[in-house]
Amino acid sequence: MYKTGTLTGAAEVLFISQPGVSLHLSSLENYVGYKLFDRTGRKMVPTERGKVLYNFTIEALSKLEEAEKNFQRSTEKHTPMISIGMCFETFQITLEQYISTLPFNVIIRFGEYPEMVENLEKGILDIIITPQMVPKASIEYQPFSSETIVIVGGNQTDETEFEVIESTKDSELIEAWLKQQKWYGTTGDMEHLRRFWQLNFNKYPDFRPNYIVPNLNSIVRCLSSGQGLAVIPDFLCKKELESKQIKLIWKGKVPLENTLHFATRKKTIYADEINLIKKIFIDEMA
């Protein structure tokens, strides 16, 4: 009734009679204890309290309707819906190109890894690609690849002076040169830069990047046509490094490595679909 604005419209949507709609409305108004609609001619105009009730319940009702559609028994062939969690950049360089070829439906979700693990445990996600392991009794982790966090530079960056300084192994000189350069970072995520600096200089960086862009793939594209530095996982820019669109500047004194894992529930009805997703990632990151 809120959506259609009339008793007749609501009756048509619900496949019940108009008197039936009126009866349900009266019952609901008696239950909540106040008027939900004003009758203006043929129009049903929601009261302020009616609007509040609608806005408070609409999300839950929509989820119930979606659950009904997904779980209702049907004689039609069921196409599985697989929900996959990962970072945006990983999706772009691995799975994105294969989406249209998958023999099942897919929902891709991005977010923080601990939150994705919670959603995996709840059944909202079916598989996660993650460098972090959050222990959960119902979840298992399978390592499948690794990434090294490195400093890369634009193809016009002159690293000659840095090569001389780096050969001295003087941490203060190395840090000073690096801090003099123009830096790229991503919106709200400086984890790679902080971890790299902490490992190599035993402190957090005391500067902010000059250019903040949406994601790590944006950084790679920006560096491909100019100068500057950034700290990113090497697998995100493997092709650009091989084609010399960007340069590897420094791996650090001690390599900073992440192991990438598949995280899945121990019990799942989508084992075949999940194995296909795993194969794509293993082949792409070999």
TrEMBL record:
<keyword id="KW-0805">Transcription regulation</keyword>
<comment type="similarity">
    <text>Belongs to the LysR transcriptional regulatory family.</text>
</comment>
<feature type="domain" description="HTH lysR-type">
    <location>
        <begin position="1"/>
        <end position="47"/>
    </location>
</feature>
<dbReference type="InterPro" id="IPR000847">
    <property type="entry name" value="LysR_HTH_N"/>
</dbReference>
<keyword id="KW-0804">Transcription</keyword>
<dbReference type="InterPro" id="IPR036388">
    <property type="entry name" value="WH-like_DNA-bd_sf"/>
</dbReference>
<dbReference type="Pfam" id="PF00126">
    <property type="entry name" value="HTH_1"/>
</dbReference>
<dbReference type="InterPro" id="IPR005119">
    <property type="entry name" value="LysR_subst-bd"/>
</dbReference>
<dbReference type="Pfam" id="PF03466">
    <property type="entry name" value="LysR_substrate"/>
</dbReference>
<protein>
    <submittedName>
        <fullName>LysR family transcriptional regulator</fullName>
    </submittedName>
</protein>
<keyword id="KW-0238">DNA-binding</keyword>
<dbReference type="InterPro" id="IPR036390">
    <property type="entry name" value="WH_DNA-bd_sf"/>
</dbReference>
